[in-house]
Amino acid sequence: MIKLVDGFGFNEELELVIQDNTEDDSEIFEFFSDNEFLNPQYYHIRESLTVGENFDFGIRNSTGEYVSCIGDDDAVTKYLVDCVKWMKENKLEGVFPERITFLGPEAYPGCKGDLHYKSFTEEVKFVNTSEVLKDIFDKGCINTGNLPLLYRGVVSRECLDKIRVRCGTYFPGASPDIANAVSICLVIEKFVVISAPIVIGGNSKTGGGGVNFLKYHAQTDFTKLPHLPKNIKEIWCKKIPLIWSNPTIWCESVVEALNAWGRSDLIEEINFEKLYEYFVLYYFHYRKMAFELSNNKMRLLLKSCFNYSSRYFNGIIYRIKTKLSRKKYSNGRLVVSGFDDFNEVLEYLNKNDYNFMDIDHVRIKI
What we know:
Elements: H1 2-6, E1 16-20, H2 26-34, E2 40-44, H3 51-60, E3 66-67, E4 75-76, H4 79-90, E5 94-97, E6 101-103, E7 114-117, E8 124-128, H5 129-138, E9 154-156, H6 157-167, H7 176-187, E10 190-194, E11 199-202, H8 207-210, H9 232-235, H10 246-260, H11 264-267, H12 272-282, H13 287-293, H14 297-324, E12 328-330, E13 333-336, H15 342-352, H16 357-360
Parallel strand pairs: 1-2, 5-10, 6-11
Antiparallel strand pairs: 3-9, 4-11, 5-9, 6-7, 7-13, 8-10, 12-13
């Protein structure tokens, strides 16, 4: 990633801040001593931090007018600077590209280096933040929905500083990207979604703080999750199963963010029954936790049976469509295989699918 960004040549316009929280930083120091780079600003804190605290220090150590956060297995493209210039011209506080994901060869057994993306267009879409919040509340906060994620988008520092002034942190929740996204929705009324390769999310076996392997697994022993706040069990919402999993930690982070903003009224709008339905479907071994919290256990039982049947038949239909189609798709996104690393991915995008100039001529009237 360091070599990648340094090779873009944006010496004065782009700042790469590396916030390291590993116990041993000797390897990265050796890397820096063997290479000369123009962009990186490196900071290291050896003391144990939560993921949110580490990201918080990263933003505080940055100086740019606009900020984008990435993880240890993600990457940005050279179009990031073009995107920010376009944002400034159009006075936009937040821009979020359609999701692009690269699963490296080591992501899972049999992975062939897959790039997941939708074909790029010149479409520029305004999204109302109140509608985004309503949508995730209705669905029980089981996924990120259309939330404006700093994790794969670009946000003005002015917007982020409003969050820090109010909450004391840029990330007022156990899952930093979710808590920050909810906060952004409470700061701005609208944001823009574009179809452009600005940030590419990675998904290696050890990425995401070492917890990607838990995607469809749950963890009841919070001591094994040092990336979470130490008091997480004490502050955990009583309406959410007390267990670490994707949907529960996302929902918990939404609740924490709303509490930080003093918006307990919005917590009442969350459909927790939808959370229980999803939890039973994907974490069946722990289904008792959801049934104990449900206010309508018979409905939850019936919905669970229906969801299992739907999942089974939808899987059959998907496999049939995949065999009949010449192209491979996953969740509506095109899948292209055969990439060894991000450099090959960027080379492919440059040759085949995208030039930011296609969208640069678009001027938005606020």
